[in-house]
Each structure stands twice: as structure tokens, then as C-alpha cells.
Hints:
Number of helices: 0
Shape: globular
Largest sheet: 4 strands, antiparallel
Structural class: mainly beta
Helix content: under 10%
Strand content: over 45%
Amino acid sequence: MRLSVLGKADEDETHQDSVWTCAWSPNSDLLVTGSVDESVNVYHELDGKVKRHHNYSGHTLGVISVDVDPSGEFAASSALDSFIRVWSLQDHITKDVIETPPSETWAICFNPASDTLQIAAAGGSSNGISLYNCDGSGTPVSTMSLPAGDEKFKKDRFVLSIAFSPDGQWLACGSQDGTVAVFDVSSGKFLHLLEGHFKPVRSLTFTPDSKMLLTACDDMHSHLYDVEHASLVEAFSGHESWVLSVACHPSGSCFATGSSDSKVKLWDMSSRSCAQTLTEHSDQVWDVAFNAAGNRFASVSDDKNVALYSFQQ
């Protein structure tokens, strides 16, 4: 298995500041990115290069997280301005704008199993998760709270990251204190904690079979958990600084991580070892993502670059 660099966005088509987040459309070659420059870009591949397809504005502070819904019709972005904006990728019209209390939204993700367009938001200082229907109501249809801990350390429970399992059964979130919590989506019930991290968990992703969860943490490790049994299966080390992002290949055969050491690493799930290290970026790599077909990969960074790679098994 190997990642090969295809190219980057041209300087006049890239963001004007750090790029913090990226997500592929599940049924096209569109790549959505969000930046500290308060904008969202949509790119597509043309002759092996990343070409800008559209630019969305509307946020008044840096964009923290983006996602694309399972149909590929809508994209969403959350920002430091505490707004979640939902956009049409077809006609570029804003479908919904959700205002949340200050510091109570961070990472976002669409529900892959909902009959309606539904988005989950890592609740930041609210110490939980909020679920919203993108219907203009602006109020959560459900909230899931982390179990009560020591009140003294409540501020350290700031919820940063979030991920649905592909089958829609589970919802996981990661917090600033290293807490990783798993909830049952249908009931909203807290199930259990996944233990092992003690620093901020910046990113989460389930394996395609929904049985395992991968994490990215400031402790310089990525963990693999058995979700149902709440057990740590493997701890992956090799980065020289914070691990900021993690993405699993659609086949489940490997996963990739991005780090503040400016490197991207590709990991083999069968051998539980690092298969490749890439040094395409010159600054922190905030997000990484495989496309649904598994033949393309993207990484974004504080160096303002959006890098595109091909993947071969």
C-alpha cells in the first residue's frame, strides 16, 4: 500500500490562512475544506491537480470542521463564530444556519442512518453532543451528555471531536481531557468510556465495519479500540508531536494520521505498523481524508496547502 503525491491547489486558488479541516463528497470527486480565513472551498481533481470549484463565505471566524451528507447533496461547516452553516453543493444556496451558544460547537458530522438531514455537533464547553435536524428550527432534537465527573475538572471535558459509526448505531466523541465516550444513537444512552488517553483527543473515526474506533491524540499516539467491549486493541506511536487527525481507508486495510510534526503517516492494520511517512507539508497537518472509492487521499495544513494523493493497495 502506498500514497503518491499528485499535486496541490495553486496559490491563487488556495486558502489565505491555515486550513483546519477537509471532507470528501461520498459520490463525487468534490473535496470540501475549511480555513482560519473564515471560508469554505470546494475543490475537484483536474489532471491530477486540485482545482477550486466554488468558495463559500458567511462565517465571521475561522472554520473548525466540515462534513458532507451521505447523499453528497449538502455540505456543512462549523466555525469559531458558534454557527453551523449547511450548504447545497449543487446550487450553492444556504439550506440552514444553526446558531449555538458561545463555545458549544466544535467538530460536526452528518448522521449516516437518519431519514432526515441530521447533523451532530461536538458540544465544546457543554460537555456533550447535540443533534440537530437541518430544518430551520435551530434547536437540538437530542442532547447526549458525558457522565458526571469531578466538577473541578469540568472545563477539561471540552468536547472536540465526534464520529458516527457507518451503520449509524454508535456516536463517539473525544474531549480535551482524553475522554472518549460512546453513545447509542437510537436511545441517546451513554454506553461507556474508552480509556487510555489523557490529553486532547482531536479526531475520531470508525472502521468501515463499525466495530473499531481510531483516535488521534495530543499524547502523540493513535489508538484502536474495540467499541462493543470498550477495550484498547492497539496503540500506534511514531509521530514526534501531537496527532491531530485520523482517517480510515474504506477497505479497512489501513488508516492515515496527520500531526503537528508536519507529517502524514500511513498505517497497515494487519501488521499494526507504519507503512509510509510523507513530508509534503511544512507545518501542522490538521486533517486527512480518504475518498469513498479509496483511490484518493487529501491532507490540509497550517501551511495553507491542500494536498492530493493517489492511493494504491
